[in-house]
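Bit of a strange request maybe. I'm writing a small parser for C-alpha cell strings and I need a real example to test against, not something I typed by hand. Could someone generate the C-alpha cells for this chain?
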Amino acid sequence: QVQLAESGGGLVQPGGSLKLSCAASGSIFSIYAMAWSRQAPGKQREFVARITRRGMANYADSLKGRFTISADYAQNTVWLQMNNLKPEDTAVYYCSAGPLSEPDRYWGQGAQVTVSS
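Reply from user aminoacidic:
Good idea to test on real output. This should exercise your parser:
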C-alpha cells in the first residue's frame, strides 16, 4: 500500500502562482510514476501531469507552459508548480501513484485550489 498526502492548496488571485506538494509513504518501491489530476465542480476528473522515476514528464495539452511537474523520488515527493492561474483552474487537485501496470492505483485525499479575485 502507498499513502499519498497533498499540501499547498489555497486561495489565489487570477494570474498568481501556487505550488502543490504530494508526499508518498508506504510501499514506495512499487511506484513507477506519480501524477496530478483535478476535478472542478460539476465536472469529471481530468489528467494534469505525470512524471516517472526516470524523470519523463507528460502534460495535458491545455496546461503545457503554465503547469510544471517535478519529483524527487529519494524524498518520495512530487510537486506541481502552477503559474498564471485562471478561475477555470479552480478544482480539487489529486495526487496519484502506482506501478507501471496501474499508474493511478493509489490516490490522495485532494487539495482545494481556488482561483478568485
